[in-house]
Design brief:
The protein is α/β, with parallel strands linked by helices. It is built from 21 helices and 9 strands. It starts with a helix and ends with a strand.
Amino acid sequence: MQDGNSKSAPNAIRLAVAALLLLAACGAVAGLQVTSHAYEVEPLRHTDEAAHYLNGVVLADYLRSGWGEPPLAFAKSFYLHYPAIAPLVWPPLWHAMLALWMAVAGTTPGAALALAAVVGGGVLAAFFASARAHAGWAVAAAFTAILWGLPLFNDLTTCLMADLPLMLMAGLFTLAAARFLENPSRRNAWLLGLAGGLWGLTKPNGLAALPAMVLLLAFSGGVRGAWRRLAGAAALAAILSVPAAMISVRLLGVHHPGEGGLPAVGHRMYFYANNMRWQLGWPLLALALAGTAAVLIAMRRGRQPSADTAALAVLAGYLAFHVLLPFEHNERYLGSMLPLLLYFATTAVHSAASALPGGRRTAAGFALGVAAWFFFTRHALPPQSPAGFREAARALAGDAIRPARVLVVSEEKGETAFTAEMASLDPARRGFVVRGSKLISDSNWHGGEYKLLHADVESLATHVERLGIRYVVFDNSVLAEPRPEHTLAWRMLAGSGGRFKLERTIAYGRRLAVYRVTRAAEPPLERIEYRLSRSAGITVSE
């Protein structure tokens, strides 16, 4: 009994230390969010941010009150009120995480950002665990601080994009791959397949797990005869992730046409190389490349650690997925690669220092010097500023007549951000936001096949009144580069002859004007109606 207690005490201490480190990592990410004023601004920095948030909200609503109602009918009803959700356009894991979190913590944008802090802390913890295993605490801590300070990490942890959980799942997959190489048991094969499946369930980019597993087999020399278990892990990952990813690609195919051919491959290689240099700087990128070269040399000699082999296979698989396949490129897609590049930078520091007197102390000193250089030369992202949509939503939420009907006219990010803010202030989802891009015009997802739905100002004004819309929020900022629906809406508001009365103006990052519709039909004389997408062929109507 004495022996059992003596063994459990160190385990409990290790768990307590790990929990404290994870809590500190989450707090460090929350610090980024607070200093950048992320909790004070609307979800509009990225085009898809509001849609990710509302996809989580609709699932949280369903978990709390929608049981017994068909999921599609529930989603259609939500979309009718707040038309900025995009069901199944992305695989469901990030939205399911948001939903479970917000079902308990509340459905405000601030609650969702708190989950981003937890996920970002998980990314830092997974990186630290990988680096500490071979480079020691000091080197791992220094490079974890560098990861925390990267501009892209700052960007992704202060918004609600799916690229942040994608980073976390890539890190967990790398840890699972290293564990499988060390002990290719059936249990570790299941864990590897599950990690790969969750990676792909976050975003189609996570399908990089499949080429990574093929490269894992090639780099490890057959995983000591356990290739069948690795094949089973790959099959499990594919079963979990490929169906959702194919639905996503099918829906997004309208939005993002493919970029094929050798010139496109070369352009993507140049794009990612240039962004790696910008994110890391030449010294860090040189260290990462030196560490990668050291791992390749050790691999050729058959002396590479399992963690190195796993990291190399994941990095190569991810690069191959993004460079060779005909998908668009985006700097956010570097997110899952940057921790791997920093991992190889720690490998370079550790390998070089181990050949010098003082080994670990030399490595720690050099790593701290690199971190000091990084923070001295890199500039943090500037604090974010509110656009004014949150203030407009709060002003209209106090309307005595419920449910309020509001038309918002802006570009896509502005309209969806305002929609998200209105939804966050309406727990019962009784209000209606009508988007100008859907009421006044019609186009496919990437703006093609565009046409106006109203021939003149009178036609539009009459339609707005008959829909029972009580307020119009017009973003004057779009008039610098107006689309036809912006021009038509502005003409309607400016020459209304008293039918649209200016109630207030809001000037933050945007110049917003809030108009009251003086002749709004009560009750409405026309129904709100949307086509959710051309590819799905779903119509939503009151």
